[in-house]
Amino acid sequence: MQVLFQEQTINAKRKPIAQARKPRADSARNRQLLIDAAKAGFAEFGLNVSLEEIARRAGVGIGTLYRHFPSREAVVEAVYRREVEQLAEAVPQLLETSPAGEALHKWMHLFVDYIATKRLIAPSLGAAATRGSSLHATSVELITGAITTLVKRAVAGGDVRKDIDPSDLLRALVGVSYGNPDVGWQASARRLVDILMDGLRSTASASRIRTARR
Amino acid sequence: MQVLFQEQTINAKRKPIAQARKPRADSARNRQLLIDAAKAGFAEFGLNVSLEEIARRAGVGIGTLYRHFPSREAVVEAVYRREVEQLAEAVPQLLETSPAGEALHKWMHLFVDYIATKRLIAPSLGAAATRGSSLHATSVELITGAITTLVKRAVAGGDVRKDIDPSDLLRALVGVSYGNPDVGWQASARRLVDILMDGLRSTASASRIRTARR
DNA sequence: AGAGAAGTGGAGGGAACCTCCGTTTAATAT
DNA sequence: ATATTAAACGGAGGTTCCCTCCACTTCTCT
What we know:
The structure is a homodimer. Chain A is mostly helical. Chain A is built from 9 helices and no strands. The longest helix of chain A has 26 residues. The radius of gyration of chain A is 23 Å and the shape is globular. The first copy, chain A, starts with a helix and ends in a 13-residue tail after the last helix. Chains A and B meet through loops of A and loops of B. The structure holds a DNA duplex.
């Protein structure tokens, strides 16, 4: 006790300016585990999985979940946010391991998966991601950046035709993924992506399909 | 007991075919009270009012609510259904008490209110009212019928110009009501409705505004 | 008026939400 | 290496909501 007091006196000026200590490793890890568990839970039980089930799957206590995410909506938003980030982060990784054309193709399939989760959680995402929100803006930016990079590289590598506007391609992907809300849409979207990719590759008919300007 | 038996014997052939007895008065009344309470509850507390709160407001037990509506979604659907019915039923009543032009005008304001509730409960209406459902079909039919009648009468009465396509007008109303999801949209929609009505009345510029065919 | 069908109310069991706080653990100081 | 301590953890438990069940009441029809 005396020692304690002495120490305090000696270190009285210890924190003149907040010098944050390194964040704990387990905290970050648990956060990731929770997001993974949430995504899996949504997929398996639908949007109304109990938060306790999510915590159980992540192998953490319910209190931990609530410390990381104060509400259900915060959980949903985190899942969505990470989904978009992964889509963006996949780009360099794909470009490293595959030729540019193939990288673009694979990414387009990832995009279909992304839309699948987005559709699933959209109702609960609610106001957080409406047109105009910062979340929405960030997502659009990240995704546009990703596809632009991929297209540029594929064009540079001669894997796809030169007259591709990345925004048009993105619109095509969205169009392929939305609008058919039946059960088989995901498989259908995948097939359409493959066809789209074939179209991109063909240099022969470069003049036949003409994408609208903007 | 003997009497009982006799009666039964005498009336043995009472129900050769299911002959429903008249539904009880209190049942119908409670149903209405519940729908009213639900609409009020949604407006006051949002879409997640507890069903118990709704029952309380209606002055009935929770059991009664559940007998009438087996699920939350059923409650929401009933509210929506009645909203549409009221919109249709308002027509003859308006035409009785107002000149045809004014009746149309008033109805258009009712329509804005209708959209307000519809927007509120849409998320929970979910699959029940998607394009293609019978609920959706019925609603479109009722509403189209209503506005068509009103327009016809107003034209016949000389209150509005002759070149009005009811479907176009309906589209305009929808356009005026959707698309601006901010807080002031309802007031804005009302102002636009008034302007629209002024436009309908003016016979002078009948050629200036030309509605697209279908 | 009396019988019985139909409807009612609300207690109660179960599930999910969320808070609170005693315990544990990782990061830092010694 | 050890001590210290801020940060994070876990989960019991209070609260709220959901929904079922059934003893009781009320309405309709004879």
